[in-house]
Amino acid sequence: GWPKPWLFFRVLATMVIAYIACTFTLMHLSDAGNMIPAVMILGAFAVPVTTLTFFFEMNTPRNVSIHRIATLFLLGAVVSLVFALIGYTLPVLGSMGNMAAGIVEEVAKLLTVVIVVRGLRYKYILNGLLFGATVGAGFAAFETSGYALNQGLLAGSSLHAGVVMMLEVLRTRAFLTPWGHVAWTAIAAGAFWRVKGSQPMQLSMLFDSRFLKAFMIPVVLHTIWDAPWQLPFDGNYILSALVSWYVVFGLVQQGLRQVKDEQREHLQTTLAHVEASLQPPGVVAV
Question: For a designed S-S bond to 104, which of 14, 23, 41, 87 qualifies (C-beta 3.0 to 4.6 A apart)?
Answer without folding.
Answer: 87
